[in-house]
Amino acid sequence: MAKINAHYRKLSAGYLFPEIGRRIKIFQQDNPGFKVHRLGIGNTTEPLTQAVINGLRKGVDSLAAKETYSGYGDEQGEEELRAGLSRFYKNRGVGIEIDEFFVSDGAKPDAGNIQSIFSTDNRIAFQDPAYPVYVDSNVAAGRSGPYDNKQGNYSGFVYMVCNLENGFIPDPPQERVDLLYLCSPNNPTGAVATHRDLQNFVDYARERNAVIIYDASYSEFISDSALPRSIYEVNGAKECAIEINSFSKFAGFTGVRLGWSIVPRTLVCEDCEPGELHDFWLRRQTTFFNGASNIAQRGGIAVLSDQGLRECAALIDYYMENARVIRESLLKRGLLVYGGVNAPYLWVKAPGNLSSWEFFNKLLDEAHVVGTPGSGFGPSGEGYIRLSAFNHRENIEEAVRSILDNLAL
Ligand SMILES: *Cc1c(COP(=O)(O)O)cnc(C)c1O
Description:
Layout: H1 7-10, H2 16-30, E1 37-38, H3 50-62, H4 79-90, E2 101-104, H5 107-113, E3 124-128, H6 133-140, E4 147-148, E5 153-154, E6 158-161, E7 179-183, H7 195-208, E8 211-215, H8 237-240, E9 241-246, H9 248-251, E10 259-262, H10 276-288, H11 294-303, H12 306-332, E11 337-339, E12 345-349, H13 356-367, E13 369-370, E14 372-373, E15 384-388, H14 393-406
Parallel strand pairs: 1-13, 3-6, 3-7, 7-8, 8-9
Antiparallel strand pairs: 2-10, 4-5, 9-10, 11-12, 12-15, 14-15
Bound molecules: pyridoxal-5'-phosphate.
Pyridoxal-5'-phosphate (PLP) binds next to helix 5 and helix 9.
């Protein structure tokens, strides 16, 4: 008699994007011929750069000849790619050994799977609002109580509120927690943690034998050299933090699929020795995953070449110019706008105490612009909308023109 994993029943309905789609459809039926400007996209839009295309082609070509064909690769990822990553970190003053990198098919799968090497008894803390996979993977693993529809959260979890008062970067919780998920630069708020913010979390974790899971997927969007791009820039982080990153937003690999995680050998928790979490993650990956595509890995190696890094930096500059255009236009229009300086997301306060969905409707009805309601990322996202810089420049310009001309405030 088979039984279902009933924890999946607790997952709150993933209705955010279907509901956005439904409202756009209604708007289009009621307003035929109007162009809808989509500023809610969390997906890259610009083509891969030349160096990367050449790397991917080389990957394909090597599969075409007997002499260069390869099947399954190294368990933790191609050594050349991990050596490139190690150099990449070294150039920013962080020493990570080649065998502390685990190459994967992306940051989302790693962020969802990493909880499986920790006890189901662990108490978990999340930023609120947050990228949904951290919460959902722990719900599916049975670490939460039921979802509270009124509160918009799960019992049993600790929500670290990110609001205007704390600059959208929370302090560590007052109570004891065992695992903490942090994302900086943050999706959805665009806020970036400083060294001091991260040091507070690292100190908290080391005092309590807690572990931080740090999602740095937007690290390359940081242009302010005073801000940390890796948690390992902070003293003590290698004893208490796992870092997850990705080529998705860095190099436009959202469809190519390639990421990495760092599990330092020095990482410890309450009941394990140094090296054990590292070995457990290796065991998990070799058991349930057979490595990232060798073609994608050739692309990743090309990203980390001098030319690749220069080209990808230019790609990020393009998106960040989009962010600047949105930010300045909205500020000029009198809206309160956060983020968008060292992150591709802008966190826009709904005017006049409107809710996220009310502001969504107003933007759509008046300016024909689509954002993403902040309340879809957690209860503390209520009253905000996320706008994204991932788009073609001409679309961004049309959208902000429409906001400036048509949004009534
Ligand atoms: C886009 C995004 C990712 C992406 O993950 P991939 O699986 O590598 O595409 C991870 N974390 C956050 C916070 C993101 O916004």
